[in-house]
Design goal:
The structure is a homotrimer. Chain A has about 260 residues and is an alpha/beta fold. Helix content of chain A is about 45%, strand content about 15%. In chain A, the strands form 2 sheets. Chain A has a 6-stranded mixed sheet with strand order 1-2-3-4-6-9, sandwiched between helices.
Chain lengths: ~260, ~260, ~260
């Protein structure tokens, strides 16, 4: 009897698509899916044929959060689970050299919303939504949600959506800057793949180091930020791709990137 | 002859309402009102019958700032006054274990705006406004205003409203995320109390620790934020209320919270 | 044969206007223009007759970024150029005691956008735009752009505009809080000068220290921010201008500021 994997991975035209595949559970995390997703992210990060990574869910949900019904290994605390199982997934995305795009096909609740928000860009289907259910059962937001929401919405709105557990649909998310694009319900993957291919046409070093520099300047003064950027610009400026980029620009042709 | 208190406090159905009560001065602060407000906040924070606190003003103003006509104790500098009299009020709100809602019934100017912004949520009457008068007399924003405004509006708009002293009415405040709700002029307290009761129906530990975690993750990296949240989730996860919350969810009934 | 200066400066009615003057190159920076702009900023910062500074461009562009065609001194790296030539310009603006207003008359690309964003306020002509071309040639945003854009737009939108190189026109910039005002195409300098004169009517110490306090509270806790503001308020509170400001207010006349 074949085992059905809880996470599927496919790479085509430089774009890797990772699909959470427990549709009957709205892709709520259990220990197997956590392990398989982490594995898929490590592989995508290392895959030389992959320039951009999409994360999406099969079926009606993107990820309904943690599966409350799952059996937790005896003795493991929630703190250990967050730090040892979820954190490597989220940091594997946030500190990847490649851009990640979340294609949110349905409910993204709790740690499922944190998964989407760890990505660099988010495309959300028009009828999908973010949802924080924590305060209904006495918990707090986790997986970085309190940081993502405070930063993007400001403290007043962030506290409101976290403690009142309001659903935030795609149009509101776009208006508030939580996501980049709203897609029609029937072409989420097509439009996300089109965005991924747009990214892929850009210089890989720009994709990688723009992501890195944003992380490094966060919380710094302007003076420090300028110097941090300057240090990284030295790397890109000495690359073969920068030479090619300038040459292609002058010759009015498309650049051919090597990623170095 | 009875003394009329400059701050009134009433607790009902788990909601404490603190009312600034110098309506003839638009509730501009003098030394007595500062002391009485601080006292009211300490008591509300300690009151076991109180889960949510509302701060509002009597009459036409919420709080017109510092009363420029007041006699300042000889030898006290403005720096001492801000650090010893205003700061404990503002931090008493911001670091309370309970959520505070400002019900802004009229002008909230200078330190009066800082008082509202120290709260977790803000409901503002449609004809009320924030106003920074500092640059008209050669002063700078205080009570945390420069932080609140920079964070929520970004530096360009924040500098503009602070140095030009523009009034910001309720609709603009809502659009910019400075407040959570706009109420009709005649039902501010009713709608704020309704919001307070919505909060009160949520798990007290969620209200408390969501507030705490937002403060603790501010300025942290995603990796640190995830671990800070995980440490606090350990507390809520081991609470009786989390057990009750899960049970009530499965039994499709309202949870009965103990706050532990 | 007279040399045409690449940067023009004029002071009138307390307002200094600095104009980038290489219109044939859309004011793209070369080494001479960098040096002359730095010099103009130092002089404007020291000029006792100048209370507010405007930076604008002559011709159709504000500043098209770095001039890719320029001869770079042998041995100078891009890191050195950013730190030694651009950074003093940008920090000369950001840490000036005077408010700077960018009057963006056309394309502000790359480091040209960074120049505008280093100013305290921005007025943009309706057909002007910000543009990040870095990812088209394999580079990353510099001059503080990754910080400005992340802070104002949040990480999702910031990454998008930086890696996809989307043009952001005036109306979108206003909606997103990147700028303060949109002007008609034919009256940019008039409306910017009017704004400068509005600032000039305010107390100089308020303009100066509001700018300084915003920089100092950035990233601080509320408790620290309150104390930082209190320390600066002590200075303004003891100024002659504060006495004059209060007196003028009571006498219902315009204050006459001395700046001390």
């Amino acid at each position: 009897m074949p085992t059905i994997s809880s996470v599927l991975t496919e790479t085509s035209a430089g774009v890797t698509t990772i699909t959470l595949n427990r549709p009957d559970n709205l892709n709520a995390f259990n220990v197997v899916q956590r392990a398989e997703l982490h594995d898929a992210i490590i592989k995508a990060n290392d895959d030389l044929d992959s320039a951009v990574v999409i994360i999406t869910g099969s079926g009606k949900g993107f990820c309904a959060g943690a599966d409350l019904a799952e059996k937790i290994p005896s003795g493991q605390t929630v703190e250990e689970r967050l730090n040892k199982e979820y954190k490597p997934i989220l940091i594997g995305i946030a500190e990847s050299q490649k851009p990640y795009i979340a294609a949110v096909n349905g409910v993204a609740a709790g740690i499922g919303a944190a998964l989407a928000m760890a990505c660099d860009l988010i495309v959300m289907q028009s009828n999908a939504y973010f949802y924080q259910a924590f305060s209904a059962v006495g918990l707090i937001p986790d997986g970085g949600l309190s940081l993502h929401l405070s930063q993007q919405l400001g403290p007043k709105k962030a506290y409101e959506v976290m403690v009142l557990g309001q659903k935030m649909y795609a149009d509101e998310c776009l208006r508030l800057g939580l996501i980049n694009r709203v897609s029609d319900a029937d072409n989420l993957l097509d439009s996300t793949t089109a965005l991924a291919l747009e990214l892929r046409a850009r210089a890989p070093l720009s994709l990688r180091y723009t992501k890195e520099v944003m992380r490094k300047v966060a919380g710094e003064t302007l003076a420090n930020a300028i110097s941090i950027e300057a240090g990284i610009q030295l790397i890109t400026n000495q690359s073969e791709d920068f030479k090619e980029g300038k040459k292609a620009f002058l010759e009015k042709r498309k650049a051919v990137w090597k990623g170095c």
